[in-house]
What we know:
39% helix, single chain, 5-stranded parallel sheet, Rossmann fold, alpha/beta
Amino acid sequence: MDFSMMTSEGRTPQVPDATALPPLVVVIEDEAIVLAGYQMLFESWGYRVIAAQSADEAVSLVEEEGEAPGFILSDFRLRDGQTGTEAISMLRRSFGQGIPGAVVTGDTTVTGEGLKEAEAEGTPILHKPVNGRQLQDILSRSLG
Length: 144
């Protein structure tokens, strides 16, 4: 018998079934404190989270994880002139066009080109301040 796998109670631990893992959520936000807040919130709801400050960082982290995300949330205005719409598109090109996502913005109207593009692609736009109920609702609708 292999004792290395036994717990102190003498039981062999159950290896979690990979299909039972909670969905992987990618959050892209260039403000570190806001990013940490999203990460803590989503983890408190039981999701696994990849938190990144740019689309490039998110792609690298998802590649390291070795699993496509189940949902992508991105702030609209990111560093270096990148938009959340572009970030979500980049992740979808890399990991699957059908990945649901949402863009968070402080803009009160859908006038920016990137926001119009997000809306045309069917990507929901959440207006700041975003509350927990809005996020839970969009995640549960997107992830089932």
